[in-house]
Amino acid sequence: MVGEEPRLARKLLEPLAGIVRSTQAKSLLYEAVYTITLSLPYCRKADGTMPASVPDIVDLCTRTLKSFVEESDQNLKYLGLVGFASLMQSHPKMLASSENKAARPLILACLSDDDITIRTRAL
């Protein structure tokens, strides 16, 4: 829907970030983060700049996805990797930032996971 109505993407960022900050429900956390990552490419203002809140929201999503990948539950780990792949589409340099460097070795460690789907997704 945000592809058809780009203003909606900017309006959704803060409410979705609020859900990510306040809920413990893994399913809701994932859906909120995933919707944010799908909305990010459409958040540019008319002048081509991103809203000031975007870097903090990207960091919030990165921390949340990192916590998913750290889980022992393979399903959550897989969802975390899917979320990182989606986030990398709009913010490919986010793993290079100093705050998010801890996520890179975590993803690389998934390459040696026993589960083939985790290894494949980590690629």
From TrEMBL:
PANTHER family associated with the record: AP-3 COMPLEX SUBUNIT DELTA-1 (PTHR22781:SF12), DELTA ADAPTIN-RELATED (PTHR22781)
CC terms in the record's Gene Ontology section: AP-3 adaptor complex; endosome membrane
Keyword Membrane: yes
Protein name according to UniProt: Clathrin/coatomer adaptor adaptin-like N-terminal domain-containing protein
Subcellular location, principal: membrane
GO biological process, alphabetically ordered: Golgi to vacuole transport; protein targeting to vacuole
Domain (Clathrin/coatomer adaptor adaptin-like N-terminal): residue spans on this chain: 4-123
Lineage, top ranks: Eukaryota, Sar, Stramenopiles, Ochrophyta, Bacillariophyta
InterPro entries per UniProt: AP3_complex_dsu, ARM-like, ARM-type_fold, Clathrin/coatomer_adapt-like_N
Keyword terms: Membrane, Protein transport, Repeat, Transport
Family the UniProt entry places it in: Belongs to the adaptor complexes large subunit family.
Cell compartments where the protein resides: Endomembrane system
Pfam (any one): Adaptin_N
